[in-house]
Amino acid sequence: MKESHHKVHLCLTRRGFLVLFFFVFYPSQPAQAELNWKVREIVKDQSSTTHLTDNQGNRYKKVSVPNIRTIWRIFHDVSSKAELTADLIIVRGNAPNAFAKGLGSNIIGINFGMLDLVGEDVNIWANLLGHEFAHLKLSHSLAGIKRGIPLAILGELIERKVEKRQVKELLGLTTQAIDSHYSQEQESDSDYLGAIWALEAGFSPWGAVELHKRLLSLTGTDNYPDFLKSHPSSEKRIKRLSKLARRLESK
User: Is 203 helix (H, G, I), strand (E, B) or coil?
Assistant: First the structure.
C-alpha cells in the first residue's frame, strides 16, 4: 500500500530550484496512472464482466463488474470511517501495486496485479484501502516531499564535496537509511489506522496479515510486486500485523 510522491533530485543552481518548485506544486502520478479507469464509472456497467479499454478501443483487462462493485462498496465504507473522500482508479501493471496520492486531489489507485492477487477477499480489500486512506489522512505525500528536499540537498553536497569513492558511497547509504526509516514509520502508522477503519467498517483486521502473506509468496517470481519496494513485507511485519489484529479483536 504505497503513497505516491515524486523523488526530487536537486541541483544547487537556479535551474535546480525551479525544477524543485515545479515538482512540489505540480506533483506527478505514477507512470502507470497515465492510463487509468475510474471505478465509479465501471460500476455503472450492467454486464457481469467488462473489458477495460482505451479511447481507441484497445482492450487491457477483463474484470468482474460485481467484484468491482464490492470493492467500490468497501471503499466507501472505509472512506466513511476515515472521514475522507478520494477517487478510486485502476491502473495497468501485472506486479501487484497500490498507491495513494494527495496534494490537491485525493486518489487511491490499484493495479491489475492487485486485483488478481486480492480477488474477492473483502477483508483484504478493507485493510488495503484503509491503509491507503491512512497515507492520505496522515499527509504522507507532503511529508515525503519535505523529507526529499533535505535528502536531495545532502546528496548534492556529497557529490560536490566528497571525492573519495568509498566515503561518498557510505554517505549515500546514510541518506537512504534516513529515508527508509521515515518510510517504515509511515507504513506502521498506516497499518494501524487502516486496520482500525477496516474493523469499524465491519471487516476483519486479519485481512492485512493475509495480504502480506500473499505478497511474500511472490518473492522471487516475475510478478514481484513494486508494492513491496515501499511497503516491505516480511515475517516480522506479518507478526506485527497479527499482534495488532489480536489486540483490536479483543477490544
Answer: coil
